[in-house]
Amino acid sequence: MTENDTTENQEKRMPVVAIVGRPNVGKSSLFNAIVGRRVSIVHEQPGVTRDRVVAPASWHGKHFQLIDTGGLGNITGAKKMDDIWDAGIREQVEAAIEGADVLIFVCNVQDGVVPLDREVTDRLRGIGKKVLLAANKCDNPTLDSESMIFSELGFDKIYPVSCLHRKGVSRLLDSVLEDFENAEEEETKPEPFRIAVVGRPNVGKSSLVNWMLGEERVMVSEIAGTTRDSIDIDFEIKYRGEMLPAALIDTAGLRKRSKIDNVVELFSMMRTEEALKRAQLVLFLVETSKDGVTSQDRKIAASIVESGKGCIIVSNKFDLCKEEDQDVKQKQLIEEIRYTLPHLNYAPVVFTSALRKYNMDALLDQIAEVMAQMEVKVPTSLVNKILLDAFDRNSPPVVGVAPLKLYYCSMIGNGPPKFLLFVNQPAYCADNYLIFLKNCLRQAFDFTGLPIVVELRARPKKVASIRTERTTDKLRKPTGKADKKDERKTVSKPENKPDRTKPRKPGKQPGRAPRSTDKLRKSAAKTKPGRKNEKKPGSSPVKNRKKF
Ligand SMILES: Nc1nc2c(ncn2[C@@H]2O[C@H](COP(=O)(O)OP(=O)(O)OP(=O)(O)O)[C@@H](O)[C@H]2O)c(=O)[nH]1
Ligand SMILES: [Mg+2]
Questions:
Q1: What CATH number does the domain containing 359 carry?
Q2: How many structural domains are present in the chain?
Q3: Which of 116, 158, 188, 479 could crosslink 22 through cysteines, CB 3.0-4.6 Å?
Q4: Does residue 96 contact residue 20 with C-beta atoms inside 8 Å?
């Protein structure tokens, strides 16, 4: 909670429920059972959860934040490697306990009361918060009655649950939320702008996340593979002078599939892939080091391109370059990135150092720029003009039995920008010609950080051609002869405006150009430039784009 929170805000705050306990008792299973999705990684190996995982949940109309935590206490017989994480996990659990209103203390009925349970009980005693003991793994009625054994820890009520059979969870939740009767339905909040941070292990993803949040929210270490779950963290981002709700998703580093040697890492990779799907923007971290862009970076880039999400390439650890070399190195790296990652040519490159806290402003500016680009809507007439010019400049190669014809195109989505282009037959469009058309759209409208999607569709009979559109545009000014003609055509409409929502029938429109290319060119030449939304010849249409 921020310092600025008023008492009123605190009252409105969603209750926070944290799940704690020693390692490997089923905390993450309970978390997933309550949230109703596989968010936390569940595995029989102890110490899988490291960072605290937060997800919204609701029960009978009551909304709350649920936190899953790593296991408290040293793992008996743990390998030296596991001990390394203890301090970090403990810090994460302490932060969760501090921020929670209610705690669910999970024990394992099949192990009975073990010394670590007593240690956790001691930690939770006297914190002044409601703590409910959930005896997990009560998979049959006999184990239900055995759960009473935990009353020796001093808890009045024991809640037997079985995450495996989803048993006892309802009773537990009723008690967890009984004091929050006023927890009303959350006002429908705008969806946060989701930014996923992805890259190879150890490139500094978690460091960047902590730096952007201004707190040590996620664990950082020099050991590759520190982050395992995908961690969603709500924050606010400044955009056009306002603070907008956003979420950063820290993800596990992606290694080569062939190098993945355990199932937890495989689950981590699946969580990262899923985070890519949820995000609107991806911060793709690469390392500014002598290795430059690696083959694994190329694979990650391919997944980002495939996801169709906006992307900014963040070249982190820029501090590793000597100061005197930085300008040269920056140029070299940009060249290398463009050469090795050609499909991500739309992604701007920002050089940062999460360790030395260098260049955060440039990164935030780029994020804001991509957000702005996601709001750009291009008028249909302008899109058609750009494509017609492209077609005139460079006619398509013949693929298949007939030449490609472009009919009509309009923008049907933004963030990323999506265009629907009617053609005579999509199969007649060569791949490189489609790339050419996309490049023309990019040159005209920029769309920094966003891939352009052009969906080709065979023309339904009623869709007019781009050329017809251009020829008739002139005739469709608000006043003048053509309008009167249109008025006559659309007498049934209440307003005397031409109905642009209906496709025009080729051949039946006033002023429609004849079919032969020569005639089209003649009529295009007659068409005076200077429609309201169009540029004068020679000027860039980018300035004309309309932002909402
Ligand atoms: N020199 C330098 N080191 C950095 C920078 N950012 C992070 N590091 C270090 O790189 C190591 C890995 O950092 P993390 O933030 O844990 O990297 P990660 O990408 O989250 O790693 P995984 O979660 O294991 O994939 C730590 O030792 C950091 O201190 C940086 O800008 N410069
Ligand atoms: Mg990490």
A1: 3.40.50.300
A2: 3
A3: 116
A4: yes
pLDDT of residue 532: 39
Q: Considering every ligand atom shown, identify the ligand nearest to the alpha carbon of residue 225 and give its number.
A: 1
pLDDT at 210: 95
Report yes or no on 181 lying in a domain.
no
Q: Walk along the chain (548 residues) in steps of 10 and give the mean pLDDT of each run.
A: 41 84 91 90 81 90 91 60 74 91 93 90 89 91 86 90 90 90 62 94 94 92 87 92 93 85 85 93 90 89 94 93 82 92 94 92 94 93 93 89 89 92 92 94 93 91 61 43 37 36 40 35 37 38 33
What are the distances in angstroms from CA 431 to CA 69, 108, 437, 457?
A: 49, 58, 10, 15
CA nearest ligand 1 atom 2, residue = 317
Asked if 114 and 229 sit in the same domain, the reply is no
Distance from the CA of 221 to the center of ligand 1, in angstroms?
7
| Cα 154 to ligand 1 centre (Å) | 43
- Domain with 399 in it: what CATH number? 3.30.300.20
Pairing, β 376-377 against β 546-547: antiparallel
Together in a domain, 429 and 451:
yes
Ligand closest to 208 (CA) is 1
* Ligand 2 center from residue 373 Cα (angstroms): 29
Specify whether 326 is located in the same domain as 451: no
CA angle 326, 204, 447 (to 5 degrees): 70
Instruction: Supply 495's token pair.
Output: 């307003």
Nearest protein Cα to ligand 1, atom 8:
204
* CA distances, 142 to each of 107, 132, 136, 151, 155 (Å): 16, 21, 13, 17, 20
Q: Which atom of ligand 1 is nearest to the CA of 199?
A: 19
Q: How far is the CA of 257 from the centre of ligand 1 (A)?
A: 21
Ranges assigned E (strand) in 168-304: 193-199, 231-239, 242-250, 281-287
Same domain as 268, residue 206: yes
- Any idea which ligand is nearest the CA of 203? 1
Please state the atom number of ligand 1 nearest to the C-alpha of residue 228. 23
- One domain, residues 233 and 366: yes
User: Partners of 244 in the beta sheet?
Assistant: 237
For ligand 1, the distance from its centroid to the CA atom of residue 297, given in whole angstroms, is 16
Query: Do 311 and 410 fall into the same domain?
Result: no
Predicted structure pTM score: 0.80
pLDDT at 477: 41
**Nearest CA, atom 12, ligand 1:** 202
Question: If you measure from the C-alpha of residue 17 to the centroid of ligand 2, how many angstroms do you get, rounded to a whole number?
Answer: 24
Task: Find the residues whose C-beta lies inside 6 A of ligand 1.
Answer: 201-207, 220-222, 224-227, 252-253, 316-317, 319-320, 353-355
Q: How far is the CA of 220 from the centre of ligand 1 (A)?
A: 6
Nearest to 272 by CA among 290, 294, 296: 296
305 Cβ partners below 8 Å, 6+ apart?
Answer: 343, 344, 451
Which residue among 85, 202, 350, 353 is best mutated to probe the pocket of ligand 1, counting the most ligand atoms within 8 A of its Cβ? 202
Do both 542 and 495 map to the same domain? yes
Give the domain range for residue 324: 193-373
Phi and psi at residue 309, to the nearest 5°: -95, 160
